[in-house]
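pasting input
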Amino acid sequence: MHKFERLRHVRYFSSSLRNLPSAYSSADTNRLTLVHFCVQALDILGVLPCDDGDGDGDAEAYVDREGIIEWIYGLQTLPTTRPTSASNADDGGCEGGHDMSRCHFVGGGFKGGTYLGPLSAIDAKDTTRRHPYDHSHLAMTYVAICTLAALGDDLSRIDKTAILDTLRSLQKEDGSFRAVSPAGASKGGTRGVWMAGVGCDEAEGCCGGRNLCHWRVDRVGTDQDVEEMEEDDDCDLRFMYTAIVVWYLLTNPDDRNDGDDEENGHDRRDNEDDGQSNNVCSSSSDECHKSNTPKPDEIINIQAAKSYILKCISHEGSLGLTPGREGHGGSTFCGIASLHLLGVLDDLLASSGGNESDHDVAASRKNSHEGESIKTNSNFDWKAWKKDLIRWCVMRQYPLPSTRNQFENNGYHPSTPAGMQGRPNKLEDTCYSYWIGGTLHLLSSSHLLDGWALREYVLKCQSPYGGFGKVVGAMPDLLHSFYSLAWLAISREGSCCEGEDDDEEDTEEGCVGVCDDENEGSNKNQMKKKKGDVHEYDDVRKQVVQSINQFSKLDCALGMCAKRRKIIRKAFRIMR
Amino acid sequence: MTMDIPTIFADIEPTPQDDGPEPVCAISYSPEFVEAHDYLRSVVKIDERSERAFDLTTVCLKLNPANYTVWHFRRRCLIALTAASHASDRLRDANLPTIDLASIEKDLDFADRLGGTNPKNYQLWYHRRALLECLLRVSDGNLPGEESSSGIVKIARKELEYVDKILGDDSKNYHAWSHRQWIIRTVNNSDLWVSEVDYSHSKILSDPRNNSAWNQRWFALHEGQISTRSNSSKASYRGKSILSLEKANDEANYALCGAKVDPFNESPWRYLISVLTEQWRFAQNSGDAGEVSIVSALLREYVRKIREMKQFWDEQQSSGNESHGPCVSMMSALVDLLEIFTNDEVFMNEAMILLDDLVEEDPVRRKYWKKRKRAIRDLLRKKKREPEVDLYAK
C-alpha cells in the first residue's frame, strides 16, 4: 500500500513553476503547457484558493498568482485580419471588429513561450512592424484559458472574438484543425492596432491592457513575401481536442447542445448577477466594438468535426491520431473528450440499454418491411463501437495474462499494482491511467477497471522528489506528474475504486476468495484478499480522497478543476 | 564543427529572451543554447533568409529539435536560397515554392542525423514530409495529383526503406508507421499498397506482438482496396471499403495462424475478430438473407476452430505436459464470436461459462467480464419472455 505524498507533490509543482532543469529545453516552445501542468496540479492538490473564499491557499506553497497571470497575458498574440471574399483589400481593407462578414481575425490566441523574443503584443506601441513569425497556437490558447481561470483571473483581457474567429479559420474541410495561426503580416492582410478606449490608460498602452474595445486598421499589408509553402501537417486529434475545448469554453452554454445539466444549472444562477447584456456597448457607435458573438455552430463545422473523429476509429475500436493510424490511448481520449464536449456522447450512452444484437435488429426489421431493402435508422452503429471501445480500454490494464506461468507462485492480490498501457503489447505508463481511465470515465464505465490496482500502480510511481514518473522508479516529469494526479482526481469521483458491482448473485464472489488447495495443479489464480485488508484500503482511499479535488466528467474532458469552470462561464458571458 | 556565431553575426544585435520581471517555469538553458537563440531571435525578427541564417538554424535545432518555428524558418531559408539560385525555372512558372534537389537530400540526411528515432518528435517527421512533397513535385516534372511515374515510386521506396531502418531500432514507433501511411497514400501506387501488405507480414513474422504491424496490414488492405468490396452501409464505422468474403476468409485464417504461434498475443485475436465482425455487420446491414447465411457459416467455422484450439490447450494443461496458464485472449475471442449468435442458446450458454472462467482467470477485469455475462443473461431472459421467429436459424 502506498501513501499519497501530498506535501512532496506540492513542493515539486511549486518549485517547477519557478525553475526547470535544462532537460526541459526541448519543451521551450510549449512552456505554457508546463505552467498549465503545474497550476492545474496545484489546483487538484487544493493549494490554489477558490474564488468562493474557502481559505487563502496553502501556506506550504507560495504561488505568485499575479506574476504568473501577467506572464501568461504577455503571450497573447496581437491578431491580424484577413479579408474574406466579401471584402476587397484595395478599398482600405477590413474594418476589423465592426463587420465580421467582411473580415476575420487570424492569429488570435496565445503562443507557448517567449522564445521569439519581445513581440508587438508586449510592445504595444510599436505598430510599424509586426514580427513576421508571430503566431498563436491552439493548444496554448487552450491551456492559457484554463490556467488563467485556475489562477483566479477574471479573463477580461482575453480577446474572445479574435480567438473564436481564429478557431474558425483553423478548421479544414475534412473537419480537422490546424494548430498554428500566423499573426505576422502577410500578403493581402492588414495590420491592426488596439487603440485606447474609454477608461484605458493610454500611458500604459492597450492590447493586453484592460479594455479591448477598439480595433482599427493601421494599414494594409503590402509585403512582398515569397509565396509560402502551405504548412499543413499534424492536424490530428490532439488539435481537434484543443479546438473543441476552446470552442466549448468560449461559447454560450445555452446555445450549445451539450446536454450537460450540471453546466446549464450553474449558468442560470450566474445569469442573475449579469447587469450587462452582450450586445450593448457603452461607448458611441463608431467607437464601439459591437459584440458579434456567433452561434456555436457558426464558429466551427460541428458535423465535420464529428465525422473526422469517427474516421479515426481503428479496427480495434480505439482511435488513432489520424484516420488509418493505430488506436492509441492519447488520441482515444482526445476523440472521446471532444465528442463529449460536442454533446454527442449521450447518443452512445443512450444506446446502452439491453444487449440487442445486430442479429435481432435485422430480424425485426425484416419482419416489418417484408420484401423491402432494409435501411438503417442511424448513420452510425454506436452500440457496436461502444462495445469495442470499452473492451479495448479495459484490456489495456496490466497485468496482462500474456505470458506463460504468469501467476505461478503469485496469487493475484487486489493490491497488486496494475498500470495501463497505451496500445496492445506495449509497456505500462502512468499517463495512460488518465487517457484511458478518463475515456472510460466519460463513458460511465470506469468502474469496469480495477481501480484499486491502478491507483496502487500510480502511487507506486511517486518519486521521492515529488511528482510521478512514467514507470516505477523513473524520475518525475511534469507531464506524467500532472496526468497521474488527474487520474487520482478521477478515481476519487468515479466509482472505479468501489467494490464489486452490485449483482444479486455475486455478493461475495470475487471479493473474498480463499485459496483452494484442492485446485492445485490447475494453475488457477487465487484471490487472497482478506477481510482485514478492506480497512487498509479504506484508509488509503480516504487519504487520497481527502487530499485532492475530484474530477467530474466535464472536468475530465476539459482537464481542469470543476470550480474554475464557473469563472470561465461568468467571464465569457460578460465579455463583449 | 562549431559555428562562431558572434563573429558571423557581428552586424546583428542579439535579442535576449524577455520573460518579464517574473519568469514562470524558467528553463535553465545552457550557455550555448542562450547564445544561439539570442542571435536567432534577431535574425528571425528581420526575417533574414540567408545561408548564415540557415546555418544558425542547424545549431539551434541540434540544441532543441522540437522548435517548430525554427524548422519553419529553416524551410523558408531553403526556399529562398533555391529561388535565389534559379534552380528550377520550370517550377517558378508553376508558381510553387521549391527547394533544390541537393538541398532536399542534405536536409533529409540532417533530419536523420538529428535523431529520427526520437519518438516524441513530430517536427522531424513533418520536416521529412515537407521536403518529400517538394521532391515529389520536382521529380520527373510531375506536379502533385498526376499519375505517379516510376521516379516518384522510386522516391517513395527509398523513403520507405529509411522508415524501415528506423523501425529496425524501434519497431513500434508510432510516427514511423504513420509516415509510411503518408508516403503510400500520397503516392497512391497500387504496387506500393500491395508491398505494404507484404511489409506488414514481414514485421509480424519478426515480432507477432507488434500491434502496429497488424494495424498496418488492415490499413494496407482496406485503404489500398486490395480485394475489397464497397461498403454502402453507413452503419459501420469501419469505412467505405470492406474485405471481400474470400479475402476475409484468407485474413481470418492468417490471423488464426498468428494466434497459434502465440495464443497469449492479443493482436492476432483482435485482428481475427475485427475481420469477422466487419463481415457480419456488413451482412446484417445489407439485409440480404443469403449474405447473412454465408457470413454466419464463416463465423461458425471459426467458432469451431477456436474451440478446437482451446480444447487442445486445456488438454495440454491438465495432462501436465506444459503449464500454460489461462489464455484470456483466446477465451475472450471465442466469447466475442459466440455472443453474436444471440438465437443460439448453446452458444450463449457456452459464452456465459467462458465468462465465468474469465472472471476467475483474469481478475483485473473481473468487473468487466461480469458485466458481459450479465448482459448475455439478461438477453436470454428477455428472449424467454418474448420469443421471436428465428429467420436465420441454421
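fyi The mean pLDDT of chain B is 88.
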